[in-house]
Amino acid sequence: MPTPSSTDPLLILSSALQTAFEAVAGRAGIDPVIRSSEHADAQANGALALAKELGQSPRQVADAVLAQCAGLTDICSSVEVAGPGFLNLVFNNDFLAGLLKQVSDDPRLGIGKVTKRKVVIDYSAPNVAKEMHVGHLRTTVIGDSLVRMLTFVGHDVIRENHIGDWGTPFGMLIEHLLDLGETKAAEHLSLGDLDGFYKQARAKFDGDEAFQVRARSRVVLLQGGDDETRRLWKLLVNLSTQHFNAVYELLGVLLTDDDLMGESAYNDLLPQVITRLDKLGLLQQSDGADVVFPPGYTNREGDPLPLIVQKGQGGFNYATSDLACVIDRIERLNADLLLYVVGAPQAQHLSMVFDVAHMAGWLAEPNEAVHVAFGNVLGSDRKMMKSRSGDPLKFIDLVEEAVTRADESIATKNPNLPEAERKVIAQMVGIGAVKYADLSTDRVRDYVFDWERMLSFDGNTGPYLQYAHARICSIFRRAGIERESVRNITPNLVEPQERELAIKLLAFNAAVIDTIDKYSPHRLCTYIYELATTFTAFYEHCPVLKAEDENIRQSRLALCDLTARVLNQGLALLGIETPEQM
Protein backbone atom coordinates (compact mmCIF):
# COMPACT_ATOMS: atom_id res chain seq x y z
CA MET A 1 0.00 0.00 0.00
CA PRO A 2 1.12 3.64 -0.43
CA THR A 3 3.64 5.02 2.03
CA PRO A 4 2.93 8.14 4.12
CA SER A 5 3.78 11.36 2.34
CA SER A 6 6.39 13.76 3.73
CA THR A 7 3.94 16.55 2.88
CA ASP A 8 1.14 15.27 5.12
CA PRO A 9 1.19 17.55 8.19
CA LEU A 10 -0.73 15.14 10.40
CA LEU A 11 1.68 12.32 9.68
CA ILE A 12 4.68 14.58 10.27
CA LEU A 13 3.24 15.67 13.62
CA SER A 14 2.25 12.12 14.61
CA SER A 15 5.75 10.90 13.82
CA ALA A 16 7.31 13.59 16.01
CA LEU A 17 4.96 12.77 18.89
CA GLN A 18 5.53 9.05 18.53
CA THR A 19 9.28 9.53 18.76
CA ALA A 20 8.84 11.71 21.84
CA PHE A 21 6.58 9.17 23.55
CA GLU A 22 9.10 6.40 22.92
CA ALA A 23 11.85 8.54 24.41
CA VAL A 24 9.79 9.28 27.52
CA ALA A 25 8.81 5.64 27.88
CA GLY A 26 12.45 4.67 27.78
CA ARG A 27 11.51 2.34 24.96
CA ALA A 28 9.63 0.18 27.47
CA GLY A 29 7.66 -1.59 24.79
CA ILE A 30 4.53 0.57 25.11
CA ASP A 31 3.08 1.68 21.77
CA PRO A 32 1.37 5.02 22.41
CA VAL A 33 -1.42 6.06 20.04
CA ILE A 34 -1.83 9.75 19.27
CA ARG A 35 -4.89 11.24 17.60
CA SER A 36 -4.24 14.74 16.35
CA SER A 37 -6.35 17.14 14.31
CA GLU A 38 -6.40 20.81 13.40
CA HIS A 39 -7.70 22.98 16.29
CA ALA A 40 -8.69 19.89 18.27
CA ASP A 41 -7.46 18.10 21.34
CA ALA A 42 -5.01 15.36 20.51
CA GLN A 43 -6.17 12.71 22.92
CA ALA A 44 -3.05 11.19 24.41
CA ASN A 45 -4.31 7.64 24.68
CA GLY A 46 -0.72 6.55 24.96
CA ALA A 47 -0.12 9.04 27.72
CA LEU A 48 -2.69 7.35 29.93
CA ALA A 49 -1.06 3.95 29.56
CA LEU A 50 2.40 5.44 29.91
CA ALA A 51 1.40 7.44 33.01
CA LYS A 52 0.16 4.28 34.66
CA GLU A 53 3.39 2.47 33.80
CA LEU A 54 5.57 5.28 35.10
CA GLY A 55 3.44 6.10 38.13
CA GLN A 56 2.90 9.68 36.96
CA SER A 57 -0.13 11.77 36.07
CA PRO A 58 -1.08 12.09 32.39
CA ARG A 59 -0.31 15.82 32.55
CA GLN A 60 3.22 15.07 33.73
CA VAL A 61 3.69 12.63 30.88
CA ALA A 62 2.26 15.13 28.37
CA ASP A 63 4.69 17.80 29.63
CA ALA A 64 7.56 15.35 29.30
CA VAL A 65 6.49 14.42 25.77
CA LEU A 66 6.42 18.06 24.68
CA ALA A 67 9.89 18.56 26.19
CA GLN A 68 11.18 15.73 23.99
CA CYS A 69 9.58 17.06 20.77
CA ALA A 70 12.50 18.71 19.04
CA GLY A 71 11.42 21.13 16.34
CA LEU A 72 7.77 21.13 17.37
CA THR A 73 7.77 24.93 17.35
CA ASP A 74 8.57 24.78 13.64
CA ILE A 75 5.47 22.67 13.07
CA CYS A 76 3.00 24.25 15.48
CA SER A 77 2.22 27.85 16.35
CA SER A 78 0.54 26.85 19.59
CA VAL A 79 1.38 23.92 21.88
CA GLU A 80 -0.18 23.39 25.27
CA VAL A 81 -1.26 20.75 27.74
CA ALA A 82 -4.91 21.00 28.76
CA GLY A 83 -7.25 19.15 31.08
CA PRO A 84 -6.09 15.79 32.40
CA GLY A 85 -3.39 15.41 29.75
CA PHE A 86 -4.67 16.53 26.38
CA LEU A 87 -2.26 18.02 23.85
CA ASN A 88 -3.68 21.04 22.04
CA LEU A 89 -1.68 21.56 18.86
CA VAL A 90 -2.23 24.18 16.14
CA PHE A 91 -0.23 24.03 12.92
CA ASN A 92 2.11 26.88 12.04
CA ASN A 93 1.02 28.76 8.90
CA ASP A 94 4.55 28.96 7.51
CA PHE A 95 4.95 25.21 8.04
CA LEU A 96 1.76 24.55 6.05
CA ALA A 97 2.81 26.99 3.33
CA GLY A 98 6.17 25.25 2.96
CA LEU A 99 4.45 21.88 2.54
CA LEU A 100 2.13 23.40 -0.08
CA LYS A 101 5.16 24.54 -2.05
CA GLN A 102 6.60 21.01 -1.90
CA VAL A 103 3.32 19.59 -3.20
CA SER A 104 3.18 22.18 -5.97
CA ASP A 105 6.74 21.35 -7.02
CA ASP A 106 5.96 17.63 -7.11
CA PRO A 107 4.46 16.35 -10.39
CA ARG A 108 2.67 13.71 -8.28
CA LEU A 109 1.18 16.39 -5.99
CA GLY A 110 2.48 14.69 -2.86
CA ILE A 111 1.18 11.19 -3.58
CA GLY A 112 3.77 8.66 -2.44
CA LYS A 113 5.00 5.62 -4.32
CA VAL A 114 4.65 2.09 -2.98
CA THR A 115 6.46 -1.15 -2.47
CA LYS A 116 5.47 -2.70 -5.78
CA ARG A 117 3.10 -5.64 -5.89
CA LYS A 118 1.84 -7.52 -8.92
CA VAL A 119 -1.92 -7.03 -8.90
CA VAL A 120 -4.49 -8.77 -11.10
CA ILE A 121 -7.86 -7.03 -11.29
CA ASP A 122 -10.79 -9.08 -12.60
CA TYR A 123 -13.57 -6.74 -13.74
CA SER A 124 -16.22 -5.90 -16.36
CA ALA A 125 -16.75 -9.56 -17.45
CA PRO A 126 -19.40 -9.40 -20.22
CA ASN A 127 -20.64 -12.48 -22.05
CA VAL A 128 -20.06 -13.26 -25.71
CA ALA A 129 -23.17 -12.85 -27.90
CA LYS A 130 -24.85 -10.77 -25.19
CA GLU A 131 -24.86 -7.00 -25.01
CA MET A 132 -23.44 -5.23 -22.00
CA HIS A 133 -26.26 -3.91 -19.82
CA VAL A 134 -26.52 -1.65 -16.81
CA GLY A 135 -25.49 -4.57 -14.59
CA HIS A 136 -21.98 -4.23 -16.03
CA LEU A 137 -21.74 -0.56 -15.06
CA ARG A 138 -20.43 -0.87 -11.53
CA THR A 139 -17.85 -3.60 -12.12
CA THR A 140 -16.47 -1.72 -15.13
CA VAL A 141 -16.33 1.74 -13.55
CA ILE A 142 -15.10 0.63 -10.10
CA GLY A 143 -12.52 -1.71 -11.63
CA ASP A 144 -11.24 1.00 -13.96
CA SER A 145 -10.77 3.49 -11.12
CA LEU A 146 -8.87 0.95 -9.00
CA VAL A 147 -6.64 0.14 -11.97
CA ARG A 148 -5.82 3.82 -12.36
CA MET A 149 -5.08 4.37 -8.66
CA LEU A 150 -3.03 1.23 -8.13
CA THR A 151 -1.01 1.94 -11.28
CA PHE A 152 -0.44 5.56 -10.27
CA VAL A 153 1.05 4.63 -6.90
CA GLY A 154 3.46 2.20 -8.53
CA HIS A 155 1.96 -1.30 -8.57
CA ASP A 156 2.37 -3.63 -11.53
CA VAL A 157 -1.29 -3.96 -12.51
CA ILE A 158 -2.68 -6.59 -14.86
CA ARG A 159 -6.21 -5.99 -16.15
CA GLU A 160 -8.22 -9.18 -16.76
CA ASN A 161 -11.57 -8.99 -18.49
CA HIS A 162 -12.95 -12.45 -17.71
CA ILE A 163 -15.47 -12.80 -20.51
CA GLY A 164 -17.96 -15.65 -20.79
CA ASP A 165 -16.92 -17.27 -24.08
CA TRP A 166 -17.34 -20.99 -23.36
CA GLY A 167 -19.95 -23.54 -22.44
CA THR A 168 -23.09 -25.22 -23.73
CA PRO A 169 -24.86 -22.09 -25.11
CA PHE A 170 -22.25 -21.87 -27.85
CA GLY A 171 -23.61 -24.99 -29.49
CA MET A 172 -26.93 -23.26 -30.21
CA LEU A 173 -25.22 -19.96 -31.10
CA ILE A 174 -22.96 -21.59 -33.68
CA GLU A 175 -25.82 -23.57 -35.21
CA HIS A 176 -27.94 -20.41 -35.45
CA LEU A 177 -25.00 -18.68 -37.12
CA LEU A 178 -24.85 -21.49 -39.70
CA ASP A 179 -28.60 -21.27 -40.31
CA LEU A 180 -28.36 -17.54 -41.02
CA GLY A 181 -25.18 -17.85 -43.03
CA GLU A 182 -21.91 -16.26 -41.97
CA THR A 183 -22.39 -13.07 -43.97
CA LYS A 184 -25.90 -12.37 -42.72
CA ALA A 185 -24.98 -13.35 -39.15
CA ALA A 186 -21.95 -11.05 -39.25
CA GLU A 187 -24.11 -8.18 -40.51
CA HIS A 188 -26.67 -8.88 -37.79
CA LEU A 189 -24.08 -8.96 -35.02
CA SER A 190 -22.02 -6.02 -36.32
CA LEU A 191 -25.11 -3.81 -35.96
CA GLY A 192 -24.84 -4.35 -32.22
CA ASP A 193 -27.97 -6.46 -31.79
CA LEU A 194 -26.22 -9.22 -29.87
CA ASP A 195 -29.22 -9.78 -27.63
CA GLY A 196 -31.50 -10.30 -30.63
CA PHE A 197 -29.15 -12.91 -32.04
CA TYR A 198 -29.00 -14.74 -28.71
CA LYS A 199 -32.79 -14.67 -28.23
CA GLN A 200 -33.34 -16.10 -31.73
CA ALA A 201 -30.93 -18.93 -31.01
CA ARG A 202 -32.55 -19.63 -27.64
CA ALA A 203 -36.05 -19.67 -29.17
CA LYS A 204 -34.93 -22.26 -31.72
CA PHE A 205 -33.30 -24.37 -29.04
CA ASP A 206 -36.41 -24.31 -26.85
CA GLY A 207 -38.84 -25.07 -29.67
CA ASP A 208 -37.03 -27.37 -32.10
CA GLU A 209 -35.82 -30.83 -31.00
CA ALA A 210 -33.74 -31.30 -34.15
CA PHE A 211 -31.99 -27.98 -33.47
CA GLN A 212 -31.32 -29.15 -29.89
CA VAL A 213 -29.62 -32.29 -31.19
CA ARG A 214 -27.47 -30.24 -33.57
CA ALA A 215 -26.57 -27.76 -30.80
CA ARG A 216 -25.52 -30.48 -28.37
CA SER A 217 -23.45 -32.18 -31.04
CA ARG A 218 -21.81 -28.85 -31.82
CA VAL A 219 -20.82 -28.45 -28.16
CA VAL A 220 -19.03 -31.80 -28.32
CA LEU A 221 -17.17 -30.67 -31.43
CA LEU A 222 -16.27 -27.35 -29.79
CA GLN A 223 -14.92 -28.99 -26.65
CA GLY A 224 -13.11 -31.59 -28.75
CA GLY A 225 -11.20 -28.95 -30.68
CA ASP A 226 -12.82 -29.35 -34.11
CA ASP A 227 -11.15 -26.79 -36.37
CA GLU A 228 -14.26 -25.58 -38.23
CA THR A 229 -16.29 -25.31 -35.03
CA ARG A 230 -13.50 -23.38 -33.35
CA ARG A 231 -13.36 -21.01 -36.34
CA LEU A 232 -17.08 -20.28 -36.08
CA TRP A 233 -16.79 -19.86 -32.31
CA LYS A 234 -13.94 -17.38 -32.82
CA LEU A 235 -16.08 -15.43 -35.27
CA LEU A 236 -18.76 -15.02 -32.59
CA VAL A 237 -16.16 -13.92 -30.06
CA ASN A 238 -14.62 -11.36 -32.41
CA LEU A 239 -17.98 -9.82 -33.37
CA SER A 240 -18.94 -9.56 -29.71
CA THR A 241 -15.59 -8.01 -28.83
CA GLN A 242 -16.29 -5.20 -31.30
CA HIS A 243 -19.38 -4.34 -29.25
CA PHE A 244 -17.45 -4.45 -25.97
CA ASN A 245 -14.76 -2.19 -27.40
CA ALA A 246 -17.33 0.35 -28.61
CA VAL A 247 -18.72 0.59 -25.07
CA TYR A 248 -15.27 0.83 -23.49
CA GLU A 249 -14.14 3.51 -25.91
CA LEU A 250 -17.28 5.57 -25.36
CA LEU A 251 -16.99 5.22 -21.58
CA GLY A 252 -13.28 5.99 -21.57
CA VAL A 253 -12.11 2.92 -19.66
CA LEU A 254 -8.69 1.34 -20.09
CA LEU A 255 -9.70 -2.18 -21.17
CA THR A 256 -8.40 -3.40 -24.55
CA ASP A 257 -8.32 -6.69 -26.47
CA ASP A 258 -5.03 -7.48 -24.75
CA ASP A 259 -6.91 -7.65 -21.44
CA LEU A 260 -9.44 -10.26 -22.60
CA MET A 261 -9.19 -13.53 -20.70
CA GLY A 262 -12.12 -15.71 -21.61
CA GLU A 263 -13.29 -18.78 -19.76
CA SER A 264 -11.99 -20.76 -22.74
CA ALA A 265 -8.43 -19.84 -21.77
CA TYR A 266 -8.72 -22.05 -18.70
CA ASN A 267 -10.29 -25.04 -20.45
CA ASP A 268 -7.12 -27.15 -20.43
CA LEU A 269 -6.50 -26.33 -16.78
CA LEU A 270 -9.90 -27.54 -15.52
CA PRO A 271 -9.00 -31.27 -15.34
CA GLN A 272 -5.82 -30.31 -13.49
CA VAL A 273 -7.89 -28.56 -10.81
CA ILE A 274 -9.66 -31.86 -10.09
CA THR A 275 -6.45 -33.92 -10.24
CA ARG A 276 -4.56 -31.59 -7.92
CA LEU A 277 -7.38 -31.41 -5.39
CA ASP A 278 -7.64 -35.20 -5.46
CA LYS A 279 -3.90 -35.67 -4.87
CA LEU A 280 -4.13 -33.33 -1.87
CA GLY A 281 -6.92 -35.48 -0.42
CA LEU A 282 -9.42 -32.62 -0.54
CA LEU A 283 -11.96 -34.17 -2.92
CA GLN A 284 -15.03 -35.90 -1.57
CA GLN A 285 -18.15 -37.37 -3.16
CA SER A 286 -21.52 -35.76 -2.51
CA ASP A 287 -24.63 -36.84 -4.42
CA GLY A 288 -22.40 -38.17 -7.19
CA ALA A 289 -20.43 -34.93 -7.62
CA ASP A 290 -16.80 -34.16 -6.72
CA VAL A 291 -16.78 -31.53 -3.98
CA VAL A 292 -14.58 -29.86 -1.39
CA PHE A 293 -15.90 -28.97 2.06
CA PRO A 294 -14.21 -25.76 3.21
CA PRO A 295 -14.80 -25.37 6.97
CA GLY A 296 -17.33 -22.86 8.28
CA TYR A 297 -20.03 -23.09 5.60
CA THR A 298 -23.43 -24.65 6.20
CA ASN A 299 -26.73 -24.85 4.36
CA ARG A 300 -30.14 -23.90 5.75
CA GLU A 301 -30.41 -27.21 7.58
CA GLY A 302 -27.04 -26.66 9.25
CA ASP A 303 -25.26 -29.33 7.24
CA PRO A 304 -21.76 -28.69 5.82
CA LEU A 305 -21.97 -26.85 2.52
CA PRO A 306 -19.76 -28.17 -0.30
CA LEU A 307 -18.08 -26.34 -3.17
CA ILE A 308 -18.94 -28.46 -6.21
CA VAL A 309 -15.96 -28.66 -8.56
CA GLN A 310 -17.17 -31.41 -10.91
CA LYS A 311 -20.75 -32.33 -11.61
CA GLY A 312 -22.04 -35.89 -11.43
CA GLN A 313 -21.99 -36.14 -15.24
CA GLY A 314 -18.33 -35.11 -15.30
CA GLY A 315 -18.93 -31.49 -16.30
CA PHE A 316 -17.13 -28.49 -14.87
CA ASN A 317 -18.71 -25.33 -13.48
CA TYR A 318 -17.94 -21.80 -12.32
CA ALA A 319 -16.12 -23.03 -9.21
CA THR A 320 -13.75 -25.14 -11.32
CA SER A 321 -13.09 -22.19 -13.62
CA ASP A 322 -12.55 -19.79 -10.71
CA LEU A 323 -10.06 -22.16 -9.05
CA ALA A 324 -8.27 -22.46 -12.39
CA CYS A 325 -8.12 -18.64 -12.47
CA VAL A 326 -6.42 -18.58 -9.07
CA ILE A 327 -3.84 -21.14 -10.18
CA ASP A 328 -3.17 -19.28 -13.44
CA ARG A 329 -2.86 -15.87 -11.81
CA ILE A 330 -0.57 -17.07 -9.03
CA GLU A 331 1.59 -19.56 -10.96
CA ARG A 332 1.72 -18.12 -14.48
CA LEU A 333 1.36 -14.39 -13.83
CA ASN A 334 3.17 -14.48 -10.46
CA ALA A 335 0.58 -12.13 -8.98
CA ASP A 336 0.48 -11.66 -5.22
CA LEU A 337 -2.78 -9.68 -5.01
CA LEU A 338 -5.95 -10.81 -6.78
CA LEU A 339 -8.86 -8.35 -6.84
CA TYR A 340 -12.29 -9.50 -7.97
CA VAL A 341 -14.64 -6.60 -8.74
CA VAL A 342 -17.76 -8.72 -8.63
CA GLY A 343 -21.30 -8.13 -7.33
CA ALA A 344 -22.10 -8.70 -3.67
CA PRO A 345 -24.42 -11.70 -4.36
CA GLN A 346 -21.30 -13.70 -5.28
CA ALA A 347 -19.74 -13.16 -1.83
CA GLN A 348 -20.24 -16.69 -0.50
CA HIS A 349 -19.18 -18.35 -3.75
CA LEU A 350 -15.94 -16.37 -3.97
CA SER A 351 -15.25 -16.82 -0.26
CA MET A 352 -15.53 -20.60 -0.68
CA VAL A 353 -13.31 -20.53 -3.77
CA PHE A 354 -10.66 -18.53 -1.91
CA ASP A 355 -10.83 -20.85 1.10
CA VAL A 356 -10.44 -23.96 -1.08
CA ALA A 357 -7.47 -22.29 -2.81
CA HIS A 358 -5.97 -21.68 0.65
CA MET A 359 -6.59 -25.31 1.62
CA ALA A 360 -4.83 -26.43 -1.56
CA GLY A 361 -1.86 -24.15 -0.89
CA TRP A 362 -2.33 -22.21 -4.12
CA LEU A 363 -3.26 -19.05 -2.27
CA ALA A 364 -0.72 -18.69 0.54
CA GLU A 365 0.80 -15.62 2.20
CA PRO A 366 1.96 -13.15 1.07
CA ASN A 367 -0.49 -13.80 -1.76
CA GLU A 368 -4.07 -12.73 -1.13
CA ALA A 369 -7.40 -12.57 -2.91
CA VAL A 370 -9.96 -9.84 -2.21
CA HIS A 371 -13.59 -9.67 -3.25
CA VAL A 372 -14.30 -6.01 -4.09
CA ALA A 373 -18.06 -6.37 -3.75
CA PHE A 374 -20.65 -3.89 -4.94
CA GLY A 375 -24.41 -3.40 -4.79
CA ASN A 376 -26.96 -2.96 -7.58
CA VAL A 377 -28.02 -0.03 -9.74
CA LEU A 378 -31.71 0.57 -9.10
CA GLY A 379 -34.38 2.45 -11.03
CA SER A 380 -36.69 5.04 -9.52
CA ASP A 381 -38.95 2.19 -8.33
CA ARG A 382 -35.97 0.88 -6.31
CA LYS A 383 -35.92 -2.29 -8.40
CA MET A 384 -33.23 -3.47 -10.81
CA MET A 385 -32.94 -0.82 -13.51
CA LYS A 386 -34.52 -1.85 -16.81
CA SER A 387 -35.39 -0.36 -20.18
CA ARG A 388 -38.93 0.62 -21.19
CA SER A 389 -39.35 -2.84 -22.74
CA GLY A 390 -38.63 -4.47 -19.40
CA ASP A 391 -35.24 -5.82 -20.48
CA PRO A 392 -32.02 -4.83 -18.71
CA LEU A 393 -31.04 -1.34 -19.90
CA LYS A 394 -28.25 -1.53 -22.47
CA PHE A 395 -24.99 -0.05 -21.26
CA ILE A 396 -24.31 1.83 -24.47
CA ASP A 397 -27.82 3.35 -24.49
CA LEU A 398 -27.32 4.60 -20.94
CA VAL A 399 -24.00 6.28 -21.76
CA GLU A 400 -25.31 7.85 -24.97
CA GLU A 401 -28.35 9.26 -23.14
CA ALA A 402 -26.08 10.72 -20.46
CA VAL A 403 -24.07 12.55 -23.13
CA THR A 404 -27.25 13.82 -24.84
CA ARG A 405 -28.68 15.13 -21.57
CA ALA A 406 -25.35 16.76 -20.67
CA ASP A 407 -25.26 18.49 -24.06
CA GLU A 408 -28.73 19.95 -23.48
CA SER A 409 -27.78 21.10 -19.99
CA ILE A 410 -24.56 22.80 -21.14
CA ALA A 411 -26.33 24.47 -24.06
CA THR A 412 -28.75 26.01 -21.56
CA LYS A 413 -26.01 27.02 -19.12
CA ASN A 414 -23.58 28.41 -21.70
CA PRO A 415 -25.42 29.12 -25.00
CA ASN A 416 -22.42 30.96 -26.46
CA LEU A 417 -20.21 27.88 -26.59
CA PRO A 418 -19.47 26.79 -30.19
CA GLU A 419 -21.31 23.57 -31.00
CA ALA A 420 -18.19 21.50 -31.70
CA GLU A 421 -16.65 22.55 -28.39
CA ARG A 422 -19.91 21.94 -26.55
CA LYS A 423 -20.11 18.39 -27.92
CA VAL A 424 -16.64 17.58 -26.58
CA ILE A 425 -17.48 19.01 -23.17
CA ALA A 426 -20.84 17.19 -23.12
CA GLN A 427 -18.99 13.92 -23.66
CA MET A 428 -16.79 14.64 -20.63
CA VAL A 429 -19.67 15.82 -18.46
CA GLY A 430 -22.18 13.11 -19.36
CA ILE A 431 -19.76 10.24 -18.92
CA GLY A 432 -18.22 11.88 -15.85
CA ALA A 433 -21.70 12.19 -14.32
CA VAL A 434 -22.44 8.49 -14.81
CA LYS A 435 -19.09 7.45 -13.38
CA TYR A 436 -19.17 9.82 -10.43
CA ALA A 437 -22.72 8.87 -9.43
CA ASP A 438 -21.54 5.28 -9.23
CA LEU A 439 -18.15 5.86 -7.62
CA SER A 440 -19.36 8.39 -5.03
CA THR A 441 -21.71 5.78 -3.58
CA ASP A 442 -20.23 3.37 -1.07
CA ARG A 443 -19.69 0.42 -3.39
CA VAL A 444 -21.31 -2.14 -1.05
CA ARG A 445 -24.63 -0.26 -1.20
CA ASP A 446 -27.31 -0.24 -3.89
CA TYR A 447 -28.00 3.16 -5.39
CA VAL A 448 -30.86 4.73 -7.31
CA PHE A 449 -30.02 5.95 -10.80
CA ASP A 450 -31.38 9.51 -10.92
CA TRP A 451 -30.73 11.49 -14.12
CA GLU A 452 -31.67 14.87 -12.63
CA ARG A 453 -29.48 14.55 -9.56
CA MET A 454 -26.60 12.94 -11.48
CA LEU A 455 -26.35 15.76 -14.03
CA SER A 456 -26.94 18.59 -11.56
CA PHE A 457 -24.31 21.31 -11.26
CA ASP A 458 -25.05 21.51 -7.54
CA GLY A 459 -24.20 19.09 -4.77
CA ASN A 460 -21.90 16.10 -4.69
CA THR A 461 -21.97 15.35 -8.43
CA GLY A 462 -19.51 14.95 -11.26
CA PRO A 463 -20.66 18.10 -13.09
CA TYR A 464 -20.28 20.18 -9.91
CA LEU A 465 -16.66 19.08 -9.52
CA GLN A 466 -15.89 19.52 -13.20
CA TYR A 467 -17.40 22.99 -13.03
CA ALA A 468 -15.30 23.81 -9.95
CA HIS A 469 -12.19 22.97 -11.98
CA ALA A 470 -13.42 24.96 -15.00
CA ARG A 471 -14.19 27.97 -12.80
CA ILE A 472 -10.61 28.03 -11.51
CA CYS A 473 -9.30 27.85 -15.07
CA SER A 474 -11.53 30.81 -15.95
CA ILE A 475 -9.86 32.89 -13.21
CA PHE A 476 -6.55 32.61 -15.03
CA ARG A 477 -8.14 33.31 -18.41
CA ARG A 478 -9.68 36.50 -17.04
CA ALA A 479 -6.33 37.46 -15.50
CA GLY A 480 -4.56 36.81 -18.80
CA ILE A 481 -1.77 34.80 -17.17
CA GLU A 482 -0.52 31.24 -17.46
CA ARG A 483 -1.13 29.01 -14.46
CA GLU A 484 2.46 27.77 -14.52
CA SER A 485 3.68 31.28 -13.76
CA VAL A 486 2.48 31.14 -10.14
CA ARG A 487 3.98 27.75 -9.27
CA ASN A 488 7.23 29.24 -7.97
CA ILE A 489 5.29 31.09 -5.26
CA THR A 490 5.05 29.92 -1.65
CA PRO A 491 1.54 30.88 -0.51
CA ASN A 492 1.11 33.30 2.35
CA LEU A 493 -1.64 31.92 4.59
CA VAL A 494 -3.37 34.68 6.54
CA GLU A 495 -7.14 34.25 6.36
CA PRO A 496 -8.83 31.23 8.00
CA GLN A 497 -10.23 30.14 4.62
CA GLU A 498 -6.72 30.10 3.12
CA ARG A 499 -5.54 27.96 5.99
CA GLU A 500 -8.47 25.52 5.68
CA LEU A 501 -7.84 25.18 1.95
CA ALA A 502 -4.16 24.51 2.58
CA ILE A 503 -4.92 21.75 5.09
CA LYS A 504 -7.40 20.15 2.70
CA LEU A 505 -4.92 20.25 -0.20
CA LEU A 506 -2.29 18.59 1.96
CA ALA A 507 -4.69 15.74 2.73
CA PHE A 508 -4.70 14.51 -0.89
CA ASN A 509 -2.13 11.77 -0.32
CA ALA A 510 -3.93 10.53 2.79
CA ALA A 511 -7.20 10.36 0.84
CA VAL A 512 -5.61 8.26 -1.89
CA ILE A 513 -3.97 5.96 0.69
CA ASP A 514 -7.31 5.47 2.44
CA THR A 515 -9.15 4.81 -0.83
CA ILE A 516 -6.69 2.17 -2.02
CA ASP A 517 -6.43 0.57 1.40
CA LYS A 518 -10.19 -0.07 1.43
CA TYR A 519 -10.67 -0.42 -2.36
CA SER A 520 -13.46 2.13 -1.98
CA PRO A 521 -13.46 4.94 -4.58
CA HIS A 522 -16.23 6.80 -2.74
CA ARG A 523 -13.62 7.85 -0.18
CA LEU A 524 -11.63 9.73 -2.82
CA CYS A 525 -14.90 11.19 -4.14
CA THR A 526 -15.70 12.50 -0.67
CA TYR A 527 -12.27 14.13 -0.44
CA ILE A 528 -12.59 15.79 -3.86
CA TYR A 529 -16.05 17.12 -3.03
CA GLU A 530 -14.81 18.49 0.31
CA LEU A 531 -11.87 20.12 -1.47
CA ALA A 532 -14.24 21.79 -3.95
CA THR A 533 -16.52 23.11 -1.21
CA THR A 534 -13.51 24.31 0.81
CA PHE A 535 -12.28 26.15 -2.28
CA THR A 536 -15.71 27.74 -2.73
CA ALA A 537 -15.56 29.11 0.84
CA PHE A 538 -12.04 30.41 0.16
CA TYR A 539 -13.09 32.07 -3.12
CA GLU A 540 -16.14 33.72 -1.54
CA HIS A 541 -14.18 35.20 1.39
CA CYS A 542 -10.78 35.86 -0.19
CA PRO A 543 -10.74 38.07 -3.31
CA VAL A 544 -8.25 36.73 -5.84
CA LEU A 545 -8.03 39.01 -8.88
CA LYS A 546 -9.16 41.99 -6.78
CA ALA A 547 -6.88 41.23 -3.82
CA GLU A 548 -5.61 44.26 -1.89
CA ASP A 549 -2.04 43.97 -3.16
CA GLU A 550 -0.05 42.04 -5.76
CA ASN A 551 1.66 39.69 -3.28
CA ILE A 552 -1.66 38.51 -1.87
CA ARG A 553 -3.04 38.21 -5.41
CA GLN A 554 -0.14 36.01 -6.48
CA SER A 555 -0.39 33.90 -3.32
CA ARG A 556 -4.09 33.27 -3.87
CA LEU A 557 -3.55 32.50 -7.54
CA ALA A 558 -1.00 29.88 -6.44
CA LEU A 559 -3.65 28.34 -4.17
CA CYS A 560 -6.14 28.38 -7.04
CA ASP A 561 -3.73 26.66 -9.39
CA LEU A 562 -2.84 23.94 -6.89
CA THR A 563 -6.50 23.32 -6.17
CA ALA A 564 -7.23 22.90 -9.88
CA ARG A 565 -4.32 20.48 -10.24
CA VAL A 566 -5.48 18.35 -7.32
CA LEU A 567 -9.07 18.35 -8.62
CA ASN A 568 -7.83 17.34 -12.05
CA GLN A 569 -5.58 14.56 -10.72
CA GLY A 570 -8.15 13.29 -8.25
CA LEU A 571 -10.86 13.04 -10.91
CA ALA A 572 -8.37 11.48 -13.35
CA LEU A 573 -7.75 8.69 -10.80
CA LEU A 574 -11.49 8.05 -10.98
CA GLY A 575 -11.40 8.00 -14.78
CA ILE A 576 -13.16 11.36 -15.12
CA GLU A 577 -11.96 14.14 -17.44
CA THR A 578 -11.96 17.81 -16.42
CA PRO A 579 -12.85 20.41 -19.06
CA GLU A 580 -11.30 23.85 -18.71
CA GLN A 581 -14.57 25.60 -19.46
CA MET A 582 -18.22 24.64 -19.30
Summarize this structure as a short list of keywords or feature phrases.
single chain, 582 residues, Gyrase A, domain 2, Rossmann fold, 4-stranded parallel β-sheet, 3-stranded antiparallel β-sheet, flat
Summarize it.
With 582 residues, the protein is of the alpha/beta class.
Characterise the protein shown here.
By secondary structure, this protein is of the alpha/beta class. It has four domains: about 10-90, Arginyl tRNA synthetase N-terminal domain (Gyrase A, domain 2); about 120-165 and about 265-375, HUPs (Rossmann fold); about 170-240, no CATH class; about 405-575, Isoleucyl-tRNA Synthetase, Domain 1 (Orthogonal Bundle), CATH 1.10.730.10. About 55% of the residues lie in helices and about 10% in strands. The protein has 22 helices and twelve strands. The protein has a four-stranded parallel sheet, sandwiched between helices. Strands 1-3-2 form a three-stranded antiparallel sheet. It has a three-stranded antiparallel sheet with strand order 6-7-8. Helix 5 (about 95-105) crosses helix 19, helix 13 (about 320-330) packs across helix 14 (about 345-360) and helix 18 (about 460-480) packs antiparallel against helix 22 (about 550-575). The longest helix is centred in the middle third of the chain and has 25 residues, at about 225-250. The radius of gyration is 29 Å and the shape is flat. The two termini are about 35 Å apart. Residues about 30-45 have low confidence and may be disordered.
